[in-house]
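Annotated sample (chain length 76).
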Amino acid sequence: MDSKTAAMLAAGFVMGVGAIGPAIAIGNLVGKALEGIARQPEAAGQIQTAMFIGIAFAEAIALYALVVAFLLIFVA
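Output written by the structure step:
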C-alpha cells in the first residue's frame, strides 16, 4: 500500500469517526431542547438560543475533522 492510499483510508476514517460524535451530540441536544420546550413553552426563545449555540459548537468538531481529512488527502 502506497502513502497516497493510506492517506485516503485515514481521511475516510477521520471523517467517519469525526462525524459520529457530533451527530449523536446534536441529536441529543435537539431532543432535550424539545423536551424543555414541551415542559415550559414560555421559555422557548431562551432554549432555542442555547440549542443553536450548542449545535454550532458540536458542528465545529465535525468541521475540524473535515479539515484534518483534507490535510491528509492533499498534503500527505
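Annotation: The longest helix spans residues 3-39.
Annotation: The two ends are 14 Å apart (CA to CA).
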